[in-house]
Amino acid sequence: MDSNQNRGILHADFDAFYASVEQRDFPELENKPLAVGGNPRKRGVVASASYEARKFGIKSAMPMSIAVRKCPEVVVVPPRFSVYREVSQQVMELFRNVTPLVEPLSLDEAYLDVTELIHRNVTPPQIAKELKDKIASNFGLTISIGVSTSKSVSKIASGINKPDGLTVVRPGDESSFLHPLPVEVVWGIGPKSSAKLHSLSISTVGDLSLQSIEVLTDIFGSNAVHIKNIANGIDDRPVITQRERKSVSSETTLLIDTSDPTYLTEIVMRLSGQVADALVHKDIRGRTVKLKLKQSDFTTLTRQKTLSEKVQISSEIAESALELLNYELKNSDEKYRLIGVGVSGFSSAEALHDEMQLRFEGF
Ligand code: DCP
Ligand code: MG
Ligand code: MG
């Protein structure tokens, strides 16, 4: 047994996070199909769907208007980000009381490396069970946990028995656990690579594990070796406690598809203001300003500009973002359905834990 197989890695992820917090705080929403997200009349999207809503086919990232069509009795509520952020901070704190080796991936999920605790005669599944119980009693929320010797196996394991799951993959059982599962469970296999794989009759992780590096390189490029290893249950990546904050951004879906410069300028200025507020609040400055545009045909463009001086305040961000916007408007006839502004390129001293994105629907 190699040293990797002595590790104990947990992946914990809240069930229907935003929706469950709403159902907890507003008991009249309990047991109801619920979608947290933007206004259906303002082209909002679903951020989180309760498990009752998922029975109707409602899921994250779906336009809210479609969610309402799928289930006319669905209750739609706007998100309360500050409440979710607070729950998140408290849960991460609880994790850090178990082990300092916590890697948050988003507001509602994290990896924990509990290898050191094994030597104190507690097993990783016991730790996971205790965490679930504590979270249920302290927060009134359910979380699903995957337990194994690696990040990728634990992440997949936490997802397959949701909600309120506890899935343990014992050392040595990684491949037999992974191989029957569909390729889509592997992180990084999105709709595009999944379609390609299916066209080659590669439908399970087991099928994937048998492919040559040549075949996988055609599909995944430089990621081929990593994907093949993951499919074989080989993943030595460590749990990293401090991740560098990559970007702070804000984006919005527009009420109508448009190329109107006055309207787009106003929105870019408002988004720049929101990004600036977040940067000021966090006391960080970045060197790169990004503009994201989603065209009517859903093609997404990002244009960025790296500056000699770091920026933080609204007017500085807006100046670069508007330059990028004006260049795009001059050189294209497209109409846009979504627009976003972001700042990245922070120094490592400003390293924080995770990529942060603010979303505002329907200006
Ligand atoms: N989220 C979002 N937009 C998305 C996906 C997620 O705003 N496209 C937000 C809302 C979710 C939260 O992030 O509640 C956590 O995302 P998850 O992917 O973990 O989804 P859920 O926790 O809602 O459901 P699950 O039980 O499948 O984990
Ligand atoms: Mg979740
Ligand atoms: Mg999650």
Query: How many separate helices?
Result: 14
Which sequence of SSEs, written as H and E, runs from N to C? EHEEHHEHEEHHEHEHHHHHEHEEHEE
Major β-sheet strand ordering: 5-6-1-7-8
Per CATH, the class of the largest domain reads Alpha Beta
The hetero compounds bound to this protein are: 2'-deoxycytidine-5'-triphosphate, magnesium ion
* Total number of distinct structural domains: 4
Distance between the termini: 57 Å
CATH architecture of the largest domain: 2-Layer Sandwich
Rg estimate, integer Å: 22 Å
The CATH superfamily title of the largest domain: DNA polymerase, Y-family, little finger domain
Shape: globular
Question: What is the overall pLDDT average?
Answer: 91
Summarize this entry quickly.
With 363 residues, this protein is an alpha+beta fold.
Question: Mind explaining what this structure looks like?
Answer:
By secondary structure, this protein is of the alpha+beta class. It has helices spanning 17-25, 51-54, 64-70, 81-98, 115-118, 124-139, 151-160, 174-178, 191-199, 205-209, 213-220, 224-231, 261-282, 314-331, and strands at residues 9-14, 34-37, 46-49, 75-77, 102-106, 109-113, 143-148, 166-168, 247-258, 286-295, 300-311, 336-344, 356-359. Mean pLDDT is 91; it is low at 349-357. The protein has 4 domains: 3-15 and 82-173, Alpha-Beta Plaits; 17-81, MutS, DNA mismatch repair protein, domain I, CATH 3.40.1170.60; 176-231, Orthogonal Bundle (DNA polymerase, domain 1), CATH 1.10.150; 247-361, DNA polymerase, Y-family, little finger domain (Dna Ligase, domain 1, 2-Layer Sandwich). The N and C termini lie far apart (57 Å). Helix 4 packs antiparallel against helix 6, helix 11 crosses helix 12 (224-231) and helix 13 runs antiparallel to helix 14 (314-331). It has a 5-stranded mixed beta sheet with strand order 5-6-1-7-8. Residues 13-18, 47-48, 60-61, 108-109, 162 line the site of 2'-deoxycytidine-5'-triphosphate.
